[in-house]
Amino acid sequence: MTDLPTDADARGSAPVTDNGPLLSSGPRLPARLRLMSFNIQAGIETRYYHQYFTRGWRHVLPDRGRVPNLRRIADTIREFDLVGLQELDAGSLRSGFVDQTAFLAKTAVFPHRYIQTNRPLGRLAQHSNGLLCRMPATAVTEHRLPGRIPGRGALLVRFSTPTGDLVVVLLHLALSQRARLSQLAYIAECIADEPHVIVMGDLNCHSASPELRYLCAETDLREPINEVPTYPSWRPARNIDHILVTPSLAVETVEVLDAPLSDHLPLTMTVSLPAALRGPIRASDQGRHAPSRG
Q1: Which of 73, 116, 174, 183 is least enclosed, having the fewest CB within 10 Å?
Q2: Residue 286, C-beta contacts closer than 8 angstroms, at least 6 positions apart
Q3: Distance CA 66, CA 43 (A)
Q4: What tens digit of pLDDT does each residue of 202-255 get?
């Protein structure tokens, strides 16, 4: 299992530089990418609203049903190429000190995983987001997103080829609209000059919201199918999980999977990559083979 180190400052981070060689006989971006965005609620299966109260203790204490549910989540994600996960635990009391990103990567046989812990609460909780992928990234940077309440971040993962870069941004946005607008303004600035971008995550707002309208107006991002509900998983009524792409990525399918393993359902998309992205991936010289967490 491999991972790239990340280096964040108080609000954002300078990109990890890439002067590495081309992997001419190594990994390449595939012509078609199978994407998934999934808020897994720290591995907690929720079927009814009342379980937020009757089983709320599972957010702070270990639960014997968590690992079997993580195995079911691994079975759900294993057929995809790039999976953005929100609300993981990086190893604390509530998860039985299991790094859930590492567990899912190993169980679903993903060779590369990248993690961002946004709210490290010591032994009590390690609130994180993670990206699992079949191909190695050239560079990974963490960004701490603006907001009155700290603890929201963006993970920006770059796959560089000789003729173009694919940039993937993983997000879990704030609950307040004001904070979300500020956070998406920050992201729009980060990707302003990037022609090939995927933004995915639990954005906590619907397709017609001012926040997403702003993001799409300030960038080339688009959402191919609007108003696809993913929450709550037992009776989907709200579309707060999203995958947005730039026009250079041809969208083939969009689907919400009937996999109620969290309080969200997984959102999936298949995209065809342009010829500019189909070359060998440039290696990173920033510890590409460094040991991963956990």
Answers
A1: 174
A2: 4, 5, 16, 17, 18, 139
A3: 6
A4: 999 999 999 999 999 999 999 998 889 999 999 999 999 999 999 999 999 999
Which pair of structure tokens corresponds to residue 11? 């609000």
Contact residues for 289 (Cβ-Cβ < 8 A; gap 6+): 2
The CATH number of 32-277 is: 3.60.10.10
Q: How many residues does the chain have?
A: 294
Ranges of H-type helices in the chain = 51-54, 66-77, 100-107, 177-190, 210-218
Taking CA atoms, 206 is separated from 26, 83, 120, 127, 227, in Å, by 40, 21, 28, 23, 7
Q: Are the C-beta atoms of 123 and 92 separated by less than 8 Å? A: yes
Query: Got the DSSP string for 30-83?
Result: -SEEEEEEEE-GGG----STTHHHHTGGGGTS--TTHHHHHHHHHHHHTT-SEE
Q: pTM of the prediction?
A: 0.86
CB-based contact 184:172 (threshold 8 Å)? no
189: its two tokens: 């600035």
Distance, in Å, from the CA atom of 53 to the CA atom of 204, rounded to the nearest integer, reads 21
> What is the Cα 116 distance to its own chain's centre?
10
DSSP state of 99: -
pLDDT of residue 61: 58
Helix/strand/coil for 198: strand
